[in-house]
Structures are given as C-alpha cells and as structure tokens.
C-alpha cells in the first residue's frame, strides 16, 4: 500500500499545536482535559482488563481457565471501532483512509479524548470491559491512544504505565504488556512495533506503535535459519535473503518465556548503546529484533546523497517493508531495487552482526538457567531454512526476496 502524507514536524497530540492558547477551564483542570495531575482526579476512561495467557498456539491463547467469549471484540470493536470514532470526531491531522496507494514532549499531555482505553490484566482471570472507569493513579495505568500523525488504518500507541513517564527503553514488564496486546488482538495483520533511540524513536516516553494492514509484511515472508533452541523452548533464528540482518524469536513454554528472552536481548542492546527496532508479528508468536546503524552512518556522512534526499527514516515499519515516502518523485520512482538499496544501508555488517549476536546470547544465557548451544556453536549449526508465511494472493517484487509495501 502507498500512502500520501505531507512532511510535518512530529506531532503526537492535538494539544501540542498551541500549548499557550487560553482554553476554557474544565473542573479546575488546565483546560486541555489531559492526563496530568491537573485533570486526572475526576477523569474516567474505558477500561479493558485482559486475561493473561499462558501460551499462544495457532493464533489463539491457551489458558489455564475456561475460554469464555469476551464481552467485546478487542480488535474490531475496541481498537478499530474506537479509532474510527476518533476519526469521525476530527481528531486526526489528516484522513489516512483517503491516501493514494501504489502497492520535549511526553504522553501525559495527550487529551483524554485521544485515549481509546486503559489496558491492564484482569484481577479475576476473566476479560472485563468497563465503559467508564476511574483512572487509578496509585496503580499507574497503561493506555492505548490514537496516533494523531497516523500512517495507517487503526494506528495507535500503547503507552505502558503512562503517568511514570518512563524513558524509551524496553523492560521486561512493558514488553510483556505489548505481547499481551498482540495476543488479545488475535489477528496476524495487527502488528506492534518499537523504535529505540538511534533507531528513529522521536519521543522519549516509553511507547509501542501498532496498526492494522491486511497484507503480509515483506520481513514476515523472509526465510530464516535456526540458530538455537533455549532450555525453555524459545527458538532463535536468523533472517536470510533480507536486506536487514536480524533475529527472529518464537516458541517457548509460556508467553512469558518468549517475552523475557526478547526483552533481555533488548536490554542488552540498550546497555551497549546499540540502536534497534522490534516487530511483534503473528499475534505475538514471532518477534523480529533488528539492530541497525543508519543514523550512525548518517552522522558519519556514509549515506549517499541520493538516499538522504528521500528523507525516509528507516524505523520499524520501513525496515519491515512498509515504507512512507514523503515526495511524489520518490513515489513515482519507487522500485524493488531502490527499496533494497535503502534497507541495505540500515543493516549492520556481517562481522558487526556476529559481534552483537554474541552480546545478545551472553545476556540471554545470564537470564536463563542455561541454553542448549553457546554463541560459538550457534554460528556453526547447519542451515535450516523455512518460510513461515503461506502462499497468498499477494505477489512478490524483489527478485529472490520480498516485496516492499511503499507509501507516499
């Protein structure tokens, strides 16, 4: 799909437009009906309380309790339905559904009307929906809000423990929450993404992005080579025949096993100042971890002027193959080769990728009782390739590789 949007500064809330503007005061608040202490005391928002799955299997969560029908359809009614409601109310900066297709801020300033719902684990193991629930400041809620600078249908933000104003750094608890959201959505076309600093995160307040796009991403169709299986049955593979080198995580006895393994890898990259992106795919069953170096190359003057002129910042969606092009010229000239050339500049070199892998596997080993293979033996295993995406009506583009979905 291709999307046409104009180039604008990063805007994540309508209340950024003019924070000095005098507005009507509401209930003694600041007038913006925001999520800060000035407006929170009397605020109420919808609350979706999810069940914690023990394991995901075949796209459905396998629970220790009886699987009852949830009170609302989480993706269709709650995320997409509420997102469309905000679109009808004019809260977005442009209409993304009408786009042409060819193939020092923090989120507490977000207005309450931009928040779709609070998202937390159910206390009694049953899915619960409360249309209007008080905001529990003591327990620090996590929320799902619209992205007013949307790039695709249903584009939202998951903001863990919003009132804590956490920096944009993954921790075990927040990453597990993102996996819970992917499982709850239960649709492989609804994905979550994360950008670290140095990998084109623009707001230093912990958040994940998510949206719905009903085509396979190119990265999801790339073959993989199994590297190792951990003691808890988490399988780690390496991407093959894709312009950006990366790791793929799946399996595990429990969802927590998978989540903790990936979050430990992310924490390792953060501690070593290595920029990275994460794609949570296939209802939380597959997670792509993609260390990158494009911003570093930019700073060193190692990116060609031709690529810089595209003004494409390769974050998680672009690396996954869903590109936003900002100029008509680039849209008209979009090709497999151009997309491949850009993404190749994002990737670590083979040597550097092996070095980073060793750091990651050492961190994972420290976080687990043991792993079946060391980092050295991991690199010597025979190639076991697989393509996990079934054939569909969507054609491929890049010869020997995967189609890039390009937007302007």
Describe the structure.
With 408 residues, the chain is an alpha+beta fold. It has one domain (33-407): HIT family, subunit A (2-Layer Sandwich), CATH 3.30.428.70. The protein contains eleven helices and 17 strands. The protein has helices at 74-88, 172-185, 218-221, 255-271, 294-299, 305-309, 316-319, 328-332, 336-346, 350-367, 375-378; strands at residues 44-50, 55-57, 60-62, 115-121, 128-134, 143-146, 156-159, 190-195, 208-212, 224-229, 234-239, 247-251, 276-281, 286-291, 322-324, 385-386, 405-407. The strands form three sheets. The protein has a 13-stranded mixed sheet with strand order 5-1-4-6-7-9-8-13-14-12-11-10-16. A two-stranded antiparallel ribbon has the order 2-3. Strands 15-17 form a two-stranded parallel sheet. Helix 2 crosses helix 4 and helix 4 (255-271) crosses helix 10. The protein is globular and about 55 Å long. The termini are close together.
Write the layout of secondary structure elements.
Elements: E1 44-50, E2 55-57, E3 60-62, H1 74-88, E4 115-121, E5 128-134, E6 143-146, E7 156-159, H2 172-185, E8 190-195, E9 208-212, H3 218-221, E10 224-229, E11 234-239, E12 247-251, H4 255-271, E13 276-281, E14 286-291, H5 294-299, H6 305-309, H7 316-319, E15 322-324, H8 328-332, H9 336-346, H10 350-367, H11 375-378, E16 385-386, E17 405-407
Parallel strand pairs: 1-4, 15-17
Antiparallel strand pairs: 1-5, 2-3, 4-6, 6-7, 7-9, 8-9, 8-13, 10-11, 10-16, 11-12, 12-14, 13-14
Helix pairs in contact: 2-4, 4-10
